[in-house]
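Appendix B. One record, verbatim.
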Amino acid sequence: MFIMNRIGNYIKEERKKAGLTQEEFAMRAGLGLRFVRELEQGKETVRLDKVNQALAMFGKEAVPGEREE
């Protein structure tokens, strides 16, 4: 799914800008390392609450809505 790839790429880029490893990011965000890895790889079946938990680290949130072209 295109959206999950975009979110995963965003998380990965911002995490790297912050100088955090996946493990450090997972710990700070209160998420599991496996989830962070799967999110960054664009896995389609991830829980939205956990996606938002990761995005909250950068002041962002995923919300349902119309698809942007």
